[in-house]
Amino acid sequence: MNKPKVIVLCGSTKFVQIMAVVGWLLERDEGAIVMGLHLMPWWYPDCPQDHLAEHEGVKDKLDELHMRKIDLADEIYIVNKDHYIGNSTTREIEYAQSKDLTTRWYTDDSIGTKVDEMLSGVMRSDDECQHKIFIDIFNYISEEVNSTATQKGWWLGMDNDAEKIALMHSELSEALEALRHDNPPDDNVPGFKGVETELADTIIRIMDYSFEKNHRVAEALVAKMLFNKTREYKHGGKKF
Fold first, then answer.
1. For a designed S-S bond to 8, which of 54, 73, 217, 218 qualifies (C-beta 3.0 to 4.6 A apart)?
2. Are residues 217 and 147 in the same domain?
3. How many domains is the chain built from?
4. DSSP of the chain
5. Residues sharing a CB contact under 8 Å with residue 6, sequence separation 6 or more, in sequence order
6. CA neighbours within 13 Å on the CB side: how many for 195?
7. Among residues 140, 131, 150, 169, which one has the least CA distance to residue 43?
8. Is residue 1, in this structure, part of any structural domain at all?
């Protein structure tokens, strides 16, 4: 195997997800060694959507480190989605060109075309993307809730559908009772009012039950919410 070329990705951190795909395609299809920005997972503490280095106060240090990556590169790949190039990327381009490195542009490259095709095939409205994120998180937490309930014995010999639904009712009744007593602080969860925790208990029971019974509650919630937007004012004249 010939020595692989080294490619450094350059571009705005707002394109970090695109960079991750570009980097994968360059390694998969061209056998290159790719260096660039890091795509952080959602569970990374206090992680912003972009500009992580600024957020953590290390932008200057990492800008300099990126220049040292360019020192190791055979070429740079500019992820200039929609022809956007920021100040930091401009400096990186100028530095790379001073070293006579090959420069490739996302907007004029077959890899960029492939990624744009992927994006056009799955691109949804912001609302649709947020709905998908909500469904994924709801189902993820539902599994965790169900696992806890199972470990605590709440599904051992207690598989009565009517009883489970009645217990959801009971949590709402406890929320009402909290309101009747001026919504005092919760006894078990510091920092929250009684209504907050009882409504949370209602949702927890719904999550637990829906996961155990394979009910697609998150998907149904989104579908019903969208349907409600099409309904008449007060749903055609209902009193409440």
1. 73
2. yes
3. 2
4. -PPPPEEEEES-GGGHHHHHHHHHHHHHHH--EEE------TTSTT--SS-HHHHTT-HHHHHHHHHHHHHT-SEEEE--GGG---HHHHHHHHHHHHTT-EEEEGGGSHHHHHHHHHHHHH---HHHHHHHHHHHHHHHHHHHHHHHHHHTTTTSS---HHHHHHHHHHHHHHHHHHHHTT-PBPSSSTT-BHHHHHHHHHHHHHHHHHHHTT--HHHHHHHHHHHHTTSPTHHHH---
5. 32, 33, 34, 35, 72, 73, 74, 75
6. 6
7. 140
8. no
Mean pLDDT in residue range 67-92: 96
Structure tokens at 102: 């090959």
The structure tokens listed for 110 are 């077959």
Q: Are residues 118 and 130 in the same domain?
A: no
Whether the model clears a pTM of 0.90, i.e. scores above it, the answer is: no
Neighbours of 132 (CB within 10 A): 12
Amino acid found at 195: V
164-209: pLDDT as tens digits: 999 999 999 999 999 999 999 999 999 999 999 999 999 999 999 9
**Residue 123 pLDDT level (bands cut at 50, 70, 90):** low
Q: How far is CA 58 from CA 13, 65, 148, in A?
A: 14, 11, 39
- Buried/exposed 42-70: b ≥16 CB within 10 Å, e otherwise: eeeeeeeeeebbeeeeeeeebeeebeebb
Which residues lie below 8 Å from residue 3, measured CB to CB, with a gap of 6+?
A: none
Give residue 86's domain range: 6-122
